[in-house]
Specification:
By secondary structure, the chain is of the alpha/beta class. About 40% of the residues lie in helices and about 20% in strands. It folds into two domains: about 5-125, Rossmann fold (3-Layer(aba) Sandwich); about 150-245, Orthogonal Bundle (Arc Repressor Mutant, subunit A). Helix 6 packs across helix 7 and helix 6 crosses helix 8.
C-alpha cells in the first residue's frame, strides 16, 4: 500500500504544526514549506501526491506557486485561505487549484477534502493507488464508430482511457486528471448534453453545490488544449443554459 505524501505550505508556523499533527495522525507523510518558493522546490525534488497551499504568503504567494507547479505537475492542489469570496475561488481555479478550503476549517473537513482529491486523482490515473481500487473504464465505445476497448474518437480527437492520453490532429494534449475525466465523460457519450452539476458529480465524485464556475474554468482549459480556436470550438461545445457536449461529427 502506497503512503501518500502531502506538502503543506503556510507562513503561519502554528497552522503548519496543526496540519502536520492532523495529517500524520491519518497516516500521511507530511512535508512542510513556509512560502511558495519552497513549495515549488519541494514539488520538483520530492515525491509529492497532494499540495495544501495558503494563498497569502511571502516571497511567492499561493496563486503564483500553483501556476508554477502546474507547469510541470498534475498533482492535486487545494488552497487554504481566510478569504472565501467567489472571486478568490475563481482566481484559484484559474491558477490550477482543484479545491478551496476556507479558514478556519475543522480536521474533519480537511480529511474529507484530502481523501476526496486523492481518490479522484487515483481513479483518473493521476496518482498511485495507495491500495484503493479505481473504477473500470467507461463502457467501450467511440464517438464516431465501433469502439476499440477504451479508445474514443471524434474527428481528429482521440482519447485513450487505458493509456490516459489525448491526441488531437496528430499532437498529444496534456490534460490534468480532472480535465481528462471531463473529456472522457463527454466523448464517451457524444452529442449528449451534460449540465455542470452532472459533470461535477460524475468527475469530482462529490455532491455539487454550485459547480458552474468550477466546471466552466476546467472546460475553458480543455478547449485551450484541444481546440485550434478555443473561441470557435470544433469538438467541445457549450449548449447555453443547459451544459456541455462533445459533438459526434465535428
Amino acid at each position: 500500500m502506497t503512503q501518500h505524501t502531502i506538502l503543506a505550505c503556510d507562513d503561519d508556523p502554528d497552522i503548519l504544526a496543526a496540519l502536520r499533527i492532523y495529517l500524520t495522525g491519518e497516516g500521511y507523510r507530511v512535508l512542510s514549506a513556509a512560502d511558495g518558493l519552497e513549495a515549488v522546490r519541494l514539488v520538483r525534488t520530492e515525491t509529492v501526491h497532494l499540495v495544501l497551499l495558503d494563498v497569502m504568503m511571502p516571497n511567492l504567494d499561493g496563486i503564483a506557486a500553483a501556476e508554477r507547479i502546474r507547469e510541470t505537475s498534475n498533482l492535486p492542489i487545494l488552497f487554504l485561505s481566510a478569504r472565501g469570496e467567489e472571486a478568490d475561488r475563481v482566481l484559484g481555479l484559474h491558477a490550477g487549484a482543484d479545491d478551496y478550503i476556507v479558514k478556519p476549517f475543522s480536521p474533519g473537513e480537511l480529511f474529507a477534502r484530502v481523501r476526496s482529491a486523492l481518490r479522484r486523482y487515483t481513479q483518473l490515473g493521476g496518482l498511485p493507488s495507495g491500495g484503493a481500487a479505481g473504477p473500470g473504464p467507461v463502457t467501450a465505445g467511440s464517438a464516431s464508430g465501433p469502439g476499440t476497448g477504451s479508445v474514443w474518437r471524434t474527428g481528429e480527437l482521440v482519447l485513450d482511457d487505458k493509456r490516459k492520453t489525448v491526441v488531437v490532429e496528430g499532437r498529444e494534449a496534456t490534460l490534468t486528471p480532472l480535465e481528462f475525466g471531463i473529456l472522457r465523460l463527454l466523448i464517451a457519450h457524444p452529442d449528449r448534453v451534460y449540465s455542470s452539476e452532472q459533470i461535477y458529480e460524475a468527475v469530482w465524485r462529490d455532491v455539487a453545490l454550485d459547480p458552474r464556475r468550477t466546471v466552466a474554468v476546467h472546460v475553458r482549459h480543455i478547449r485551450e488544449k484541444i481546440e485550434r480556436d478555443p473561441a470557435r470550438p470544433r469538438y467541445l461545445r457549450v449548449v447555453y443554459g443547459l451544459g456541455y457536449k462533445v459533438v459526434s461529427d465535428p
